[in-house]
Amino acid sequence: MPFNTKILDASSPAAISVAASALREGQLVAFPTETVYGLGAIATSSIAVAKIFEAKQRPTFDPLIVHIADRAQLSDVVTHLPPLAKALADAFWPGPLTLVLPKQATIPDLVTAGLPGVGVRIPAHPVALELLRAVGLPVAAPSANPFGGISPTTAMHVADGLNSKLPIILDGGPCQVGVESTVVSFMGDRPVLLRPGGCVVEELEAVIGPIERAAPNAALDDAAQPAPGMLSRHYAPATPLTVVARKSDASSIEGLQCGLLTYGEQPFSGSFVRIERLETSEDLQTCASRFFAALRSLDSCGLDVIIAHMFPDHGLGIALNDRLQRAACRS
Ligand code: TXA
Ligand code: MG
Fold it and tell me: Ligand 1 pocket: which of 29, 62, 65 to mutate (most atoms <8 Å of CB)?
């Protein structure tokens, strides 16, 4: 049954308690985090969690991240915290870091796609934390967009993709980090990076030493992926996207309506119907916070192609290039 979706201003007095009650009743609520907006459901209820997969049209082999308000809730979700994972949690929580750890039996298999590990994080957004405290239970939440699409960084983005699929969107303004959390698994002998994201890998390695990179996996329908959910095509606009090295000259393609996604002051030739310059400097934090909104805006222009300049391969540039490559993948 379609919902009459309400966008509630998170700073209005009753908003958090209304949203928390809806979650406790087994409904979906979209809420802001520092990375992107999440589509939340109580993590311990398979029935509630199933609604996430239905609303997003998400395949059930793609596991969900569980959000908690504080470290006291961790034992409700995971059986233990290995020393290196504890070191990262101490240094980076609350923040854009998801740790994959051995799950408690109370977390349904639907949340973890049948895997023994569960992704868990404490977000660093005041509205998310207030909501999680008010609910008092762990909340499973993927990004609040239809499966495979561009992640939402405002409440309006959520409404654009999921209107009528959920009762409540909590509006806490635009997300500051702008790319999803970094995911590190502690399910093997050594920590493995499953997804680069808002926590810079070099900074994680400064705390715990080298983190192995997960092998990239190819097929969209391959349920036996080493890093489930790391699909080659993801975060994708409807418009074809081509990624070019920043040093190369991005020139528009003769006869085609082209858009350009770029940053910094570098010159380029060709005529573009629309240019989204994320930042005039190399400030990657600002680039990240504007990235998905800029991609959406280019995607809404009816262009034939979007050309995007690659980011430097360090810091947040690694997460941004990862999103660009997945957005560009046509298979
Ligand atoms: O910043 C974020 O992480 C946002 C906000 C809402 O917290 N959430 C998010 O969720 O990006 P989602 O569903 O779009 O991405 C979750 C990804 C999965 O696709 C998978 O790659 C990894 O996290 N993941 C989650 N749980 C996992 C598990 N148990 N084992 C391995 N990978 C897991
Ligand atoms: Mg997502």
Answer: 65
Kindly state if the Cβ of 100 falls inside 6 Å of ligand 1.
Answer: yes
Q: Are 124 and 207 in contact (CB under 8 A)?
A: no
**For the domain bounded by 6-220, which CATH number is listed?**
3.90.870.10
**How far apart, in whole angstroms, are the C-alpha atoms of residue 212 and residue 105?**
28
- Token pair 């969107």 is found at 169
Residue for token pair 């993709």: 161
- What is the architecture, at CATH level 2, of domain 241-328? 3-Layer(aba) Sandwich (3.40)
What pLDDT, in 10s, does the model give residues 117-173? 999 999 999 999 999 999 999 999 999 999 999 999 999 999 999 999 999 999 999
Is the Cβ atom of 63 under 6 angstroms away from ligand 1?
yes
Return the domain boundaries, the chain.
Answer: 6-220, 241-328
Determine the residue type at 145.
N
pLDDT one-digit tens code per residue, 185-212: 999 999 999 999 999 999 999 999 999 9
Residues lining ion ligand 2 (Cβ < 5 A) are 143
